[in-house]
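For practice. Any example?
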Amino acid sequence: MKVLVTGGTGNVGGAVVKELLKRGAKVRVLARKQPEEGKLPAGVEVAIGDLLDPVSVERAMQGVDKLFLLNAVVADELTQALIAYGVARRVGLRHVTYLSVFKVEQFRDVPHFASKLAVENALREFGVPYTILRPGYYMQNDALLKGALTGPGIYPMPIGTAGICAVDIRDVAEAAAISLTADGHDGQTYDLAGPTLISGPGNAATWSKLLGKEIKYTGHNFDQWEQQMRASAPGWTAFDLRAMFQGYFDRGFASTETEVGRVTKLLGHAPRSYEDFAVETARLWKASGLSA
């Protein structure tokens, strides 16, 4: 069996590639350009193409059985996803596993959530067997906060105080590989959550303990956060992510014990915790020097 993976050179897609290989699947990655040597494991095929180019997508799907469909948060995310899905239907792929997002139907005003909800609806409407994965906040997002945490000692993500669903990328990758290589997952939608909720003050306290210094949660002034985000990202990205974080705060983004139990059954083990992720990350930072 051969699986085409979109986004296979990124953090999530790359982890999916590794998990598929562990389970004996052959893997082809769709990439806009040839990846640097060593970026992908040995034996992984590369198809050069673009999700906005249906011809290159169809060429990449020749000789492929299944698709793992991951779309980056980009302005034309919905168009990219529907092209990939439409071509998959046309060439007769046996299964599509789609990476959506937790509580997607409750955040219709967030652009990239709305795109994912539209793709979910398309998957359910047509005849290609599918699995939908709905991960919470990626724990690995916080690996990018090394400068803020080890420098001024702040936790700047405006995730609020009530507690939100978070998941380790490695658990997402395992769930994806299981859905593509094992029976019994057609038509299923899985909410992917870690064992406990995370919060701004809670994460700050975790990092304070691990780094041996006081880490302060900077709060959730969304106007200020969006303005700061515009300095390093396009305005539409800052708007989109601000709408997401404010939605977490206003409407909640908490997982339940039932959802955690279901993902535990899917994986065959308890999902990884934020504390475990943070301990591993802090250890890596200390091994390489803590300077930002």
